[in-house]
Amino acid sequence: MDRALTRTLGITGLVLLLGSGPGWAQGAPPLTTLSNTSYATTGGGSGALQQDTSGIGNTAFGDSALAANTTGSYNLASGFNALSKNTSGGANTASGVDALYSNTTGAENTASGFGALFSNTGGNYNTASGLAALYSNSTGNYNTASGYQALYSNTTGYNNTAHGFDALYGNTIGAANTASGLDALYYNAGGAYNTAFGDIAGSSNTSESYNTFVGYGADTASGKGYSNGTALGNGATLTASNSITLGNTAISRIYAEVTSITAISDRRRKQDIAPLGAELGLDFIAKLQPVSYRFNNGDATQRYGFIAQDLETALPAALRDTVETAPPEHGLALIERQDDPDRTYRVAYGELFAPIVKSIQEQQQQIAVMREQQEQIAAVRQEQQQQIAALLQQNADLKAEIAALRRSIDGIRVAHASAAR
């Protein structure tokens, strides 16, 4: 055997040539003489490492593996066409047919599987495990894909993590997404900072960002553009931006050790602050129709509350128009109509506290007025009673004077009668 070739192939090449039995001697593809004679460069397979000139620490097994490499170092290629076009990229690991096939200058990538990171040219620090995982990636960096066609369409997106069959399949430029589960975030293309855990979780998300989906089929309403939302639970679906959906329509209870939710109410976080008008005071509360009811989702629990349509009827006309016509996040928090085919009504019961307090205040004002009127009436009655008492006293005095006059007259009469005799 040629000593230069022996030196180039090293121990591994000798094992393959001489120690692997008759298969190599009779049926194995021919080994190409390597132009690079530097240490720790090993090639096995037709065209493997055939262009290498100064790269060091490279290992290639398979036809055309690392075939175009010239200066790249510390690469490992195992499989037909693995890292075939790499020229100067270093510290890459490709295992599988066509793994990292197009890579030229990308560095520190790891691809395991048929066609994994196939299109990568200059992307760095990517990890792909699975058939066609990160297949279309060209220059995207810091991506991790595990599963059949995971992150398949990604081209320049970065910092994405996908685990599962077709997870983040459609992502092209979206960044910092995390998907775990079959078809999780499947259609996401440009959306960023999304998180999905569960089979088909977030599969309708396309360009929306900052959404979180946890649970089988947890998703967003297709084509609505909701962002910064959270859907938790089987089939939970976002219906608005900046919102949290807990569970699907079958959920009828939420259990917790606490009895209330503490909400931010800092004046510095609010704008357009104004006193509540009389239109949402006592007159509004008086129109409400409390009812008992049961949901028609199989839950037979008897409940007490209101019907959204009745609440809407009790509102002033201008607010009714707001409920019907306002876009999401610009309407009335008390009553909202969901952006779904049925325009489903939702009621925020907590929003009734302010009108109830307003109505109580109006009642207290009315009671205060009534008390003042009663006090005035009582004062008038007392004055009248005093006047009556004075009049009665005057009447008694007059009667006494009259009686005295009568006695005086009677005395005069008696005197005259005596004198006449």
Model description:
The protein has 6 helices and 19 strands. It has helices at residues 3-18, 22-26, 282-287, 308-314, 317-325, 353-420, and strands at residues 42-44, 59-61, 76-78, 93-95, 110-112, 127-129, 144-146, 161-163, 178-180, 195-197, 212-214, 219-220, 230-232, 237-238, 244-246, 291-293, 303-305, 335-337, 345-347. The strands form 4 sheets. Strands 1-2-3-4-5-6-7-8-9-10-11-13-15 form a 13-stranded parallel β-sheet. Strand 18 (335-337) and strand 19 form a beta hairpin. The longest helix is centred in the C-terminal third of the chain and has 68 residues, at 353-420.
In total, the number of strands is 19
Task: Give the biggest sheet.
Answer: 13 strands, parallel
Q: What is the molecular shape?
A: rod-shaped
Which range best describes the helical content: under 10%, 10-25%, 25-40%, 40-55%, 55-70% or over 70%?
A: 25-40%
Strand order, sheet with most strands? 1-2-3-4-5-6-7-8-9-10-11-13-15
Number of helices: 6
Low-confidence stretches: 1-33
Mean pLDDT: 88
Strand content: 5-15%
Radius of gyration: 45 Å
Q: Give the class from helix and strand content and strand pairing.
A: alpha/beta
* N-to-C SSE string, H for helix and E for strand: HHEEEEEEEEEEEEEEEHEEHHEEH
